[in-house]
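Lab notebook page, bench 4
Experiment: in silico fold of construct C2
Operator: M.H.
Input chain length: 97 residues
Purpose: comparison with the prior construct
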Amino acid sequence: MGMLLLVHRWYAYIEEETMISIVDDALNEKNDPEPERYYDWMLWKMRQEKKQQPRVMTQEEIYKQTIADMQHEIHTLQLRVKELNDAVLQLQERKNG
């Protein structure tokens, strides 16, 4: 049971880090206006070009993304199981009551 809890916490951590990264990226895109000064503009332009380049993921990043995707699926399935269990309990109460 302890190992399952540890794995669940690890998946939750990976999923949280992924979501934070996605939110940070979205905020940076909105809060990154074109600057007026030359050197600031050059740095800004480099950031814009870097965003347009295809991202190459390392093996570790691929594993982390896969784990986060699996955790999301597990969470969705757990919610569905709870929903179905509640429906079964309601039907049993109707049958008995």
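Observations: The mean pLDDT is 80. Residues 2-96 form one domain.
Next step: discuss at group meeting.
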